[in-house]
User: Which sequence fits this backbone?
């Protein structure tokens, strides 16, 4: 294991932890009524964005080879369909619990990865493609998902305006 890999692992974990901590703090501070509000007129509600991020991050377990998704039922509601769909959504309390469960377990599994494991391919790329595109690795997925969370945090900050 190279020292460089350990440094990059630390950078990725710090980036991930920063964004998830910010999002958790924001969601914890919102009332159920605030969660129901759209971040801007005609846009997603805070509740939907919390569900969306939970579903996307839950899907990282199988993508990174860390196990099965904890809440695969969230994909249909929060990834494949828009906020205003007529699909039945979980309750606020249930979604808050899912958020906490997914992020607690995912963060611990990410922290347990060795430095070299971060540079292994993720499960959505073939061995052949990975040889041509070695940047399609676990590190890239985590940094991408952290950036995705930061993007939605920017939207959520509009609630306080």
Assistant:
């Amino acid at each position: 294991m190279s020292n460089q890999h350990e440094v990059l692992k630390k950078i990725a974990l710090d980036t991930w932890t920063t964004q998830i901590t910010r999002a958790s703090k924001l969601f914890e501070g919102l009332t159920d009524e605030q969660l129901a509000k759209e971040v801007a007129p005609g846009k997603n509600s805070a509740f939907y964005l919390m569900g969306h991020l939970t579903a996307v991050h839950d899907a990282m377990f199988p993508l990174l080879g860390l196990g099965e998704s904890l809440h695969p039922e969230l994909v249909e509601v929060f990834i494949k369909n828009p906020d205003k769909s007529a699909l039945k959504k979980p309750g606020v309390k249930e979604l808050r619990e899912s958020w906490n469960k997914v992020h607690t377990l995912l963060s611990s599994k990410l922290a347990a990865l060795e430095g070299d494991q971060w540079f292994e391919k993720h499960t959505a790329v073939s061995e052949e493609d990975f040889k041509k595109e070695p940047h399609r690795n676990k590190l890239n997925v985590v940094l991408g998902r952290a950036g995705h969370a930061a993007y939605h945090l920017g939207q959520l900050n509009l609630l306080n305006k």
Q: What stands out?
A: The CA atoms of residues 46 and 132 lie 39 Å apart. The mean pLDDT is 96. The chain has one domain: 3-160.
